[in-house]
Amino acid sequence: PNHAGAVYNYGLYLWRNGKIDDEEAIRRLDGVFRNTKSPIATLCLAWLHRERGDFSMTRQLLQQMADSDDPFMDQHVLQMLSKMKEDYAEDRSFAGHSAVFSPDNRYILSAGGRGEENDVILRDAQTGRQVAGFQGHTAPVNCIDLSPNGLFGLSGSQDGTVRLWNLKTGQCLRVLNDQRNYIHSVCFIDDGNKFLTGSNQLILWDTETFEMVRSYYEDFRGIFSIQISEDGQQILSSSGGGKVYVHNLKDGKMVQEIQAPPSCWVIKAACYAQDNLHVLTGAGDQNAVNKMNLWHIASPEPLHTYCGHKGNIESVCTNSDGSYALSGSVDHTVKLWDIKNRRCLRTFSEHINTVIFVAFSTDDQYALSSSTDNMTRLWRVPSFDVRADWLLCRISTTNEILKIEKRISALLNEAHRLFHAKDIAGALQTVRRMDDIPGGTAAPGYAELNNQIRKYCQTIGLRSCRMADILNGHSQSVRAAAISADGLHAVSASDDSSVRIWSLRTAECLHVCTEHTKWARAVCISPDGQWALSGGCDSRLVLWDIASGKKLKNFEGHNGFVEAAAFDPACRYVLSGASDKTIKVWDIKSGECLRTLNGHEKDITAVCVSPNGKTLLSCSKDGTIRLWELERGIAIKNYTVGKPVWTVCFSPDGRTFLSGGSTGDTTLRLWDVRIGECIHSFSGHSDIFSGDYNTVNTVGFTPDGRFAVSASREPTLKLWDVRNGQCIRTMEGHGKGIYTASFSPAGGYLISGAADTTCRIWQLDWEYMFPGWADWDEEARPYLEAFLALHPDYTDSDFNDLIKDLQDHGYGWLRPEGVQAELEKLKPKKKKGLFGWMKR
User: Fold this and answer.
1) How distant, in Å, are the alpha carbons of 144, 333, 334, 379, 599 from that of 350?
2) pLDDT at residue number 498
3) Measuring CA to CA, how many Å separate 311 from each of 243, 314, 360?
4) Which of 18, 36, 264, 293 has the greatest number of beta carbons closer than 10 A?
5) How confident is the model at residue 840 (pLDDT cuts 50, 70, 90)?
6) Phi and psi of 454, rounded to 5°?
């Protein structure tokens, strides 16, 4: 999924065959580009943008590749630049909506923009400059049309009137007051001698006298579009009742009726396609099936369906020969379609609200789109005469391959020599030289050596990331997921009530655990990697053996959904939070509830135990975060956010913690545990997603605490530099909102789970630095204090585990003898266990 060439070729194939639109093809490849920053991905993106006619973006991408040292890249960049059209016109925009071209394309007539919604404006099409303004309506103008000779304009308004304007003098010639409802559509016919209006009736009027000639039908839900056939004999109209009608103009008889599916309650867009026998319709329905359909007027089923919009389609039109179509949608986009090949050629995404009107110029060179953002945009229609190339394999000769293999082997041997000589900086530099050689990172022994070197370094940034695997098996949203300490297993919990245990080597599901009778909402893995703990909406907490997948114990006592679960670092206790507003501490061996913590006023959404096991963080829908002292079972600090808090996580050193909120507050907050204040805020997630409030569902730290991950209802993961609050990478791949994300204990992998029913494994390639050998660093003190709290009488084996933990936390460059000396200084005179309290 992260091979740029494969994603590009497959996406191009699907796009050209109408299986996906241009936006989806770009989105797929852009995900690879963001994750890898690969030059090949950049080149492929430029190819896609060139084929869809977006020359501005193509040039921007080519400029990024201008300094490439790769002859292959340079050759293709030069070829693309030579084929680019230098006379490509920029798109323009101006205030207004419901716009139409004059017959000679010199002018555009539209409703006014913000503050001028009741006016009609005439503009110069080339410059957008206002030529004339027409006032008279007392409510916003809904629809506009120009007479065939370009001398007169019609406007229909929410004030229930239609006005006829002389465009030269600006005079209002006639006012039609007979309508008692909004005017949704107007249309000149017969060289402008008559016109049609659509409100809750379709009516034909005489332009000279403004008297009604004929009424065709009524629909109290509204008549939203009107078009006359090329021969001027028939009227095509769409209605709020989910139907499209064809009527004879002269006698008013209905010739044909097209019925939308039962789930579609309104068709706001319809137009003739190619001839009088084919019709394009655009709609949306309660099942969110937002399609444009091509019909033969005598057929009860559509001939072709065009998919791509993510919201109701409000307007459609075709060009002069019926080969292309435009559609505007509630999803804020305009799409240009190849009707014959059923392919979306280009998506225009500059509007910030519903697109309610689209039109071609009479010469088909430009497109107009109007939106409820009170803006009309003029787009240059691309010629589509340049097609993207397929990306073919680059073939190397045998001699070239042998030279590369010899060089890789020499560098690998040199890196091994330097590593064993304790020259970590030299070994790291040598390994990085292998990264620039094709096949270098895939060489046998590279991954193992790189991992060994990493243990003695500090993480300073992210080089690249890629989606390594997709775990399929759940049938509903994945609510929680975690990776075991050895990195070999993952556990996930889902709304399908199951808990699944996965092998990360094979991406196969090893065990399906079905003890929960309702949604499984929480899961975590014990620090030693032997057990998994899950919580569900059946009020139960269940302990599982990871190796066998068997249930070991039930913990029962909550009176609500168990939304949060955690182990203490010593694996003696488990903790849970539920919708009954309580947190419970359980003894793992006996299954008894040792303590119940009360204080929150609403549902508990997350819990997290400190690294030393002495304190607990909890967050709630009551807008607070509480810090609890576990030995006494009391809240010792209260952090107020003011809005529901969905997630909370201690930093690895226990000095700070992260929280994430909801209901439009998508800010991540970094708190100082001791002083109880927010010391940093992270902003990057959208506050609004899909028309509703967004939520931050999960946060987590890397093992060294320098970086963090967050996920929200928008289907992206964000990686943050905790030191400066900057988002260093946005990772895309899930199809729906993400509920959970957590790092592996070594930090090289990340697991995420989402509403698309999948878990995804991400491989992270971090940038490292060797700071030099040292005996001690004060920043590592919290890890030693936590170690002594858990192991007051530590053994040599415990000490070796501490050294391994320090390597994961970014302190592998500390000499073991220096760490040992510091431990002796910190040893308490009187040794105590983790907890001194018993069941109460």
Assistant:
1) 22, 7, 9, 10, 48
2) 96
3) 19, 9, 22
4) 293
5) very low
6) -55, -35
The Cα–Cα gap between 17 and 491 comes to 39
Are the beta carbons of 143 and 156 closer than 8 angstroms? Answer: yes
In this predicted model, what pLDDT tens digit does every residue of 502-522 receive, in sequence order? 999 999 999 999 999 999 999
Please answer whether residues 751 and 769 qualify as being in contact, where contact means their C-beta atoms are separated by less than 8 angstroms. no
Give the integer Cα–Cα distance in Å for 228 and 236: 6
CATH of range 461-769; options 3.40.190.10, 3.40.50.300, 2.130.10.10, 2.40.440.10: 2.130.10.10
CA 174, CA 183: separation in Å to the nearest integer? 16
CATH pick for 92-380 out of 2.130.10.10, 3.40.50.150, 1.10.10.10, 2.40.10.220: 2.130.10.10
Euclidean distance between CA atoms 100 and 370, whole angstroms = 10
pLDDT at 527 over 90: yes
**235 DSSP β-pair partners:** 228, 247
Shortest CA distance to 390 belongs to which of 12, 4, 3?
12
Each residue of 324-361: pLDDT tens digit?
A: 999 999 888 999 998 888 888 888 888 888 898 999 99
Please give the structure tokens belonging to residue 499: 């808990």
- Are the beta carbons of 720 and 707 closer than 8 angstroms? yes
Radius of gyration, alpha carbons of the chain: 33
Helix (H/G/I), strand (E/B), else coil: 215: strand
Which uninterrupted H or E stretch holds 4?
Answer: helix 4-16
Cβ-Cβ contacts under 8 Å for 652 (sequence gap 6 or more): 611, 701, 703, 704, 705, 783, 809
Averaged confidence pLDDT in the chain: 87
Alpha carbon distance 296, 280 (integer Å): 9
From CA 108, how far away is CA 764, in angstroms rounded?
A: 53
Residue type at 566 in one-letter notation: A
Long-range contacts of 588-596 (CB under 8 A, 24+ apart): 588/543, 588/553, 591/553, 591/554, 591/555, 592/839, 593/555, 593/557, 593/839, 594/837, 594/838, 594/839, 594/840, 595/630, 595/633, 595/837, 595/839, 595/840, 596/557
